Amino acid sequence: MRLKNITYLFFLSLFIFNCQEVIEVEVPNAPPKLVIDASLNWFDGTSGNFQTIKLTQSAPFFNNQIPPAIGATVFVKDQSNTVYNFIDTSNTGIYTCTTFNPIPNQSYTLNITYNGEVYVGTETMTSVTPIDFIQQKNDGGFSGDEIEIKAFYTDPANQENFYFFEFQEQFETNPNLQVYDDEFTDGNQIFAFYSNPDTQSGNTLNIKNYGISEQFFEFMTLLLQQTSTGGGGPFEIQPATVRGNCINQTNPENFPFGYFRVSQATERIYAIE
């Protein structure tokens, strides 16, 4: 019996030793695409004159760095044909403007020329509903000891409204993103919900609410569904490519990633009790 055990261990060790071979996984690389992060937000209490647009290039999954899109010509034009130029003064792919004029319900058109191709997107600045109050519950979750936060707001009656919320606690690297509509809550007081098992009393929670268009609501809904924890892993094939509202007018097949959004916004900083 002991001899059999020794023999088994010998062959097991031999098998493990022979399996110490480096396996190189070949990940297919696609040509880089332009990634547009153009969210022009007018927060309460600010002029909204200073705005930024970030342009990058798509990169392979295992790349540690995201290459900026440098050398683009970027401007935004409003309904009155006023042009707001965005300039990258530091060659970082971050294009800034200090003269932007935000007007609710005004239509704005983004124009980007990059690598000889022209990208265009149009969006209307959507007004926002302010946050009425914030409610905290300390006995939430499955265990009954988690902190839950509700940000209440009143939806305007007899009109379609769409909301984009960002919750970010001080220890979180990335915000928690949520979108809401008023299909079943028109004219009522409703709330956006935040919960994190690591939330602790004394932390601060930054809450931002953006007024958004129906098109952006649908875009973010699809994007959040595909990137949720309930979906596949990083090597899972995505059900569909989520395209934004920017079109490559020079070469439509070389479509960009990202979205051009213009929103009125409100922000609250809540001290968790």
Counting helices, strands and paired strands, the structural category is: mainly beta
Q: In angstroms, what is the radius of gyration?
A: 24 Å
Helix content: 10-25%
Assigned CATH architecture of the largest domain: Sandwich
If strands are numbered along the chain, what order do they take across the biggest sheet? Answer: 5-2-1-15-13-10-11
N-to-C SSE series? HEEEEEEEEEEEEEHEE
Q: Which CATH class of the largest domain is shown?
A: Mainly Beta
- The unreliable regions are 6-12, 229-238
CA-to-CA gap between the ends? 64 Å
**Share of β-strand residues:** 35-45%
Describe the SSE topology:
Elements: H1 2-18, E1 34-43, E2 51-57, E3 73-78, E4 83-86, E5 94-97, E6 107-114, E7 117-124, E8 131-140, E9 146-154, E10 162-169, E11 176-181, E12 189-195, E13 204-211, H2 214-227, E14 246-248, E15 257-271
Parallel strand pairs: 1-15
Antiparallel strand pairs: 1-2, 2-5, 3-4, 3-6, 6-7, 7-14, 8-9, 9-12, 10-11, 10-13, 13-15
Describe the model.
Strand 10 (162-169) and strand 11 form a beta hairpin. The protein folds into two domains: 34-127 and 242-264, Immunoglobulin-like, CATH 2.60.40; 131-208, Sandwich (Immunoglobulin-like), CATH 2.60.40. The relative contact order is 0.17. It has helices at residues 2-18, 214-227; strands spanning 34-43, 51-57, 73-78, 83-86, 94-97, 107-114, 117-124, 131-140, 146-154, 162-169, 176-181, 189-195, 204-211, 246-248, 257-271. It contains two helices and 15 strands.
Task: Put the structure in a nutshell.
The chain is mainly β and 273 residues long. The chain has two helices and 15 strands. 11% of the residues lie in helices and 41% in strands.
